[in-house]
UniProtKB/TrEMBL annotation:
Organism: Streptomyces finlayi
Name listed for the protein in its UniProt record: Uncharacterized protein
């Protein structure tokens, strides 16, 4: 796996800061950030995603909170269709 560093939270202290890397082989983003608090997790579960999809977070997944200032480091696809499932 070859990772490319994309960015770190601006004006970051020495450690424990949100960071983003790109997996060159798969195009996946690797994101280190703050674990979402229980209030955030509950709010996301209330909103849900696609109809009929569980709102539970499986043991092999986690929910993170990425600061808005980090969005600048996320690569954008060339087209508007990024292949995600918006449920629509």
């Amino acid at each position: 796996m070859a990772l490319q560093f994309l960015g770190i939270w601006p004006n970051t202290p020495d450690d424990g800061s949100p960071t983003i890397w790109l997996d060159d082989a798969t195009g996946d983003l690797i994101i280190q950030s703050w674990t979402a608090d229980e209030e955030t997790v509950r709010a996301a579960q209330e909103v849900g995603s696609v109809p009929g999809h569980s709102t539970d977070v499986p043991d092999h997944e986690t929910m993170i909170r990425l600061p808005a200032s980090m969005l600048q480091f996320i690569p954008r696809p060339d087209s508007e269709d990024n292949g995600g499932n918006s449920g629509t």
